[in-house]
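Example record

Each entry pairs one chain with its bound ligand, FE3-S4 cluster.
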Amino acid sequence: MGQTLTEKILSAHLVEGEMVKGSEIGIRIDQTLTQDATGTMAYLEFEAMGVPRVKTERSVAYIDHNTLQNGFENADDHRFIGSVCKKHGIYFSRPGNGICHQVHLERFGIPGKTLIGSDSHTPTGGGIGMIAIGAGGMDVAVAMGGGTYYITCPKVVKVNLTGKLQPWVAAKDVILEVLKRLSVKGGVGKVIEYCGEGVKTLSVPERATITNMGAELGATTSIFPSDEITHEFLKAQGREDAYTPLCADADAVYDEEVNIDLSKLEPLAACPHSPDNVKSVSELSGMKIDQVCIGSCTNSSLLDMMKVAHILKGKTVNPDVSLAIAPGSKQVLNMLANNGALAIMIDAGARILESACGPCIGMGQSPNSKGISLRTFNRNFEGRSGTKDGQIYLVSPETAAISALTGVFTDPRTLGDAADITLPEKFTINDNMIVPPADEKDMDSIEVLRGPNIKPFPVSEPLAETIDAKCSLKVGDNITTDHIMPAGAKILPLRSNIPKISEFCFAVCDEKFHDRALELGKSIIVGGSNYGQGSSREHAALAPLYLGVKAVIVKSFARIHMANLINAGIVPLTFANESDYDKIDQMDELKIENIGKQIANGKVIKVTNVTKGFDFEVNADLSDRQKEMLYAGGLLNYTKQNS
Ligand code: F3S
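C-alpha cells for the complex follow.
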C-alpha cells in the first residue's frame, strides 16, 4: 500500500512507537524556531536543561512579536535571546528582519525536514513540503536539546485541488473555503495534505498562506508536495541545494477526502469572531469599513504585496479608512523599495509598518470602538485586536486593498482583468540581520545577558496523591488562549515575568480570577468544548500553574494547549458525560482521590463534587509518557529525571 507524503516524512523521522493512527509516536526534529513572545521562556527552559549546544540541524530565534519598545522589558528580552543564541548555537533573526514564518520559508525551510516552532502558525513551512508543527516552548527546548517530540500519529485528510483560481480570487479564499467546510475543530488530530492538479497552479507563498491558516482548523499541520514550483522558489532564494522532490504515492490511502475546484471559488471573508464564520465578499459588499491591515505571517509575501501595490497604483485610500501595511520580511520590504511598489503604497496613503507581527498580536493599530477592520491575518478572536468590540473580518490582500480604496467591503473581481504578477527569478538576498552563533570553541566566553524583566519560570511539584480544591473558574465553549492569557502591547512585554503576567490571566472573562485563584492557593478550572483553541502560547498554562491550578476539567481540549498543560504538570481531564458540566458551579469543592493511581489504572477517573454531594466520571486520555510527565510534575522535571 502506498504512503501519503505525511506518512513518508513522519516514518523517516520515527524514533518511538509505530505509525498507528491515534497512538503516540516520537519523532526526530531537524529544525526549531521560536519567536520572542514564547522564546524567552523557551530559552530559560533550554538553559535549565543544561545542554551546552543545540543538537538540531538548524535552530532559529526570531524577534517579531514584541518589537515595540515602550520600556526596557522587550529590549532586555531581545538582548537575552540574542546572547543565548550566540552561546548555544542558535541563529538569531534580529528585530526588523521579519516575521518568523515568512523568513523561515525564505531562508531556512527544507522540503522533507521536520520543524517544530513555539508558534502555532509554524505549519506555514508545509508550503515548502516540511512537516512543520506548532508546539509549546518547553517542547521546543527539549527538541533543541536533542530530545524526541511526541505527537498523536495523525489521520491524513486529502484536499484534492482541481482547476485554477479565477482572477482576483486568492489562496486566502482557498483556506477560508476549507475552514467553512471543516470548521475550527475539523482538523484536530489530522494533517491536511494538498494534492491534485490544482496544486501546480499555486506558488510557494500561496501554498504557505493555505498551510499557515490550517492552524485555524486545529490541524496538527498541513502540507503541500515539493515539486518544480518549490524548486523554482528555492532557486530564486539562492538555496537550490535544499530542493528534494516529494509527493504522496499514487496509491496512497487517505482517511478523508475533500474536493475543491479552484475555478469555482469566489472571494471570501471570515466574519467576527471566528475564522470559520465564512461568508462571500459579495454578500458583505457595500458594508462601510474603518480600517484595513495588510500583512501578518498569512499574507505578507512579496507576491501579496505586489498585488496590493498594483491595486493601489495611482489611487488614494478612502478618507474614512486607515490602511496599514506590514511587509513580512526585510527581503520583501527591500524588494518593494527597490522595485517602486513601496512608493506606490506610500503615495496612495498607506501607513507602512515595520516587518513584524504588529497589529496581528495587538501591537498597535487597534481599530476604533466598534470599528470594522478588514485584515489579511489568520485570527479574528474577540479582543485580539486590542479593541474589545472591534469587528475583525479576515480577507485576502486583494479584497483588503480594493476595499481600502472604496471605503466599503468590495469584491476584488470588480477590478476586471487579472494583473500579471509573478515571483521574481531571483529574490534580493542579504542575511545581514541574521546573526550566526559563535563557534563552539568560543561559547564559554559568551555571557548571557539578563535584565530585571527576566524572572525564573514557575516549577511545578510532583503530582499530589489527592487533589481537593475549589473550582476557581467555570467557563463556556471555545475558550481561546487569548482568553486565558491575553496578548497586546501592555501584556506581551511581561512574557518572561510569570508572576506579573499572571495578573492578566483570564482577565477578559473574569477580572477577579487572579486574586481568587491566589487566595485559594490551589484550584480546578472547569470549561466547555475546544478549550484552549488558538495559539501555542505556553503562558496559558504557566500562568494558571503559577496561580495554583492543579487540574482542568472540560468537554474537550485543543491539541497544543492540552500538551502545554501536561508540560506544566496540570492534569487535563474531560467529562465522561458532558451533562455533568451543567451540575458544577464556580467555587464548588471538587475532590479527586488517589489521582496518580486512578490515572495509572485506566482512562476513567472518579471525581467527587463535595459541595453538591455527587460523584461524576472524567477521562484522562493520556499516553504512558504523558502520565509519567504528570507524576513528575511536568516536562522539565520529567526530562531532568530521565537524563
Ligand atoms: Fe505573528 Fe500573527 Fe503570525 S502574531 S506569527 S503574524 S499569527
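Residues 268-415 form a domain with the Aconitase; domain 3 fold (CATH 3.30.499.10).
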